[in-house]
Amino acid sequence: MLLTLQDFPRQDPAEFLYTLSAACLEHTERLGDTDMACLNDEQHTLTAYCYLDSQVQEGGFVQLIAEGYGEYIFNNPLADSLRRWRIKPTPKILDQAKSLYQKHGGDIEKLSENGTPLDEIRKQFPEFEELDGDYYETADTDLAAAAGYVAANWAKFAELAE
Fold first, then answer.
1. Which of 6, 55, 113, 127 could share a disulfide with 64, CB 3.0–4.6 Å?
2. What is the reported pTM?
């Protein structure tokens, strides 16, 4: 399946990236590909970055971990891939968040699984708050840089394997 750049909104970088990521995820669902093996490295990076952004923008890194995305974000080379995309602030934040995830991730996930409200979990792990703030400050700039990379390297994103 080949996607065309003209089919995706370009005014808002986040909307552009999220719409493309959604197309990738819809494709994996149609194929029944729960491991997303049909996506190439660039498409995986895009998808992970959109998961990261949506979760952190909504409820910070604690929410990202509590919702079960910690392993996908921190145990994969997302930060390194974003560096290849010439994005600098977000990977630095991810490196710091990964250290906190390694220290507290299991506890956050366990609390979430036991039904502890997110606000209570967040209060127990205030060290993530500074990273949340750092992420919010850089998100718009980094999303714009990511959108620019994707548009400039469209061929790496356009073909969805069967």
1. 55
2. 0.90
